[in-house]
Write a structure and sequence with these properties.
Blueprint lengths: L2 H6 L3 H7 L1 H14 L8 H13 L4 H13 L8 H16 L15 E6 L6 H14 L4 E4 L6 H13 L4 E2 L7 H14 L4 E4 L8 H18 L6 E7 L4 H14 L3 E5 L9 H9 L3 E5 L7 E3 L2 H8 L3
Parallel strand pairs: 1-4, 1-5, 2-3, 2-4, 5-6, 6-7
Antiparallel strand pairs: 7-8
Bound molecules: guanosine-5'-diphosphate and magnesium ion.
């Protein structure tokens, strides 16, 4: 990637580095196939296909990309650069429709974000990163400690909130999650907060218990504000690859997901899952997590992502 692009996008280097494990293998693999006398013939296409599948792009999105490469000229593509350009175009076609930033309209106050996802996906840390981002945008966030199932979860949020002067509404471990969120929303409304971020459990005794609890949280919110939650954000660990897709389907069917955050794109070679999720679900991808620092939660931008992935 040119110096100009890096300058225009100050955190691009970080993105590029984070996507190295996924993109590096792809870029190296394609570079080794070219220049070739045969161009993108059937055999070479098969190798590109294998590279995409290894990056967890998934069968359908990979097929789409391969079809795109054939249409772009197939046998006439003899240089790696031509292949990268055609691949870039194909990836953008898949990602641009889901590249929809989360907008907080000022008339929706408090704007309620319900965070859902399995244990360890990154819900609580993403809440902290988002709260920081909102503070930087001069919005006042409040947090609801709705993961009452895990002993440490409430404390994790409280400690963070104290350190950053963000109020956290909590009851004890084992409390009714819906009641915590209800209290929090009431309080956020009364005190005119801009954003309420509600944490939730990622696992209960059974999966159906969890989905029922999430539905109940939605119901009690709607009693106070028929439009709440304004965003139901599913947090997925990119490192779980195709498993993340299954989780997304399950959560979406149960509670209706309006946006996705994909975490831990750093340190995984399965970052192609972003393409798989975009292609198969078509749900807006709001943010991606590329590290543990607050600034490592990046609003998802199709072009930035693809350029970082294919950087060489
Ligand atoms: N490297 C990396 N680690 C992350 C990212 N997002 C979350 N984590 C880590 O993932 C772990 C689980 O996160 P947590 O928020 O507790 O998950 P929760 O169970 O869904 O609330 C923590 O150690 C986080 O620091 C990310 O984008 N990159
Ligand atoms: Mg948590």
């Amino acid at each position: 990637m040119s110096a100009e692009t890096t300058e225009k996008r100050p955190l691009f280097g970080r993105m590029r580095q984070a996507l190295q494990r996924t993109g590096g293998a792809l870029v190296r693999g394609i570079s080794e196939l070219f220049p070739g006398q045969r161009g993108l013939d059937a055999l070479t296409l098969e190798e590109v296909e294998t590279l995409l599948l290894s990056a967890d792009v998934g069968v359908e999105a990979t097929e789409r990309l391969i079809t795109g490469l054939k249409q772009a000229g197939g046998g006439r593509l003899r240089e790696a650069e031509d292949v990268f350009a055609a691949l870039r175009a194909g990836m953008l076609k898949i990602l641009e429709p889901v590249s929809q930033p989360l907008l907080i309209p000022s008339r929706e106050k408090p704007f309620v974000i319900l965070m859902v996802g399995v244990n360890g996906a990154g819900k609580t840390t993403t809440i902290a990163k988002l709260a920081r981002r909102f503070q930087d945008d001069r919005l006042r966030p409040m947090l609801a400690a709705g993961d009452t199932f895990r002993a440490a979860a409430v404390e994790q949020l409280q400690v963070w909130g104290e350190r950053h002067q963000v109020p956290v509404v909590a009851q004890g471990t084992g409390a009714d999650s819906a009641s915590v969120v209800y209290d929090a929303l009431q309080s956020a409304m009364a005190r005119n907060y801009d954003v309420l971020l509600a944490d939730t459990a990622g696992r209960l005794h059974t999966q159906s218990n969890l989905m029922e609890e999430l539905k109940k949280i939605r119901r009690v919110m709607a009693k106070l504000d028929p439009d709440a939650p304004h965003e139901t954000m599913l947090v997925l660990d990119a490192g779980t690859g195709q498993n993340a897709l299954m989780q997304a389907r399950e959560f979406h069917a149960a509670v209706g997901v309006s946006g996705i955050t994909l975490t831990k794109l750093d340190g995984t070679a399965k970052g192609g899952i972003v393409l798989s999720i975009a292609y198969k679900l078509g749900l807006p991808i709001r943010f991606i997590g590329v590290g543990e620092q607050p600034q490592d939660l990046r609003p998802f931008d199709a072009e930035e992502f693809v350029d970082a992935l294919l950087a060489h």
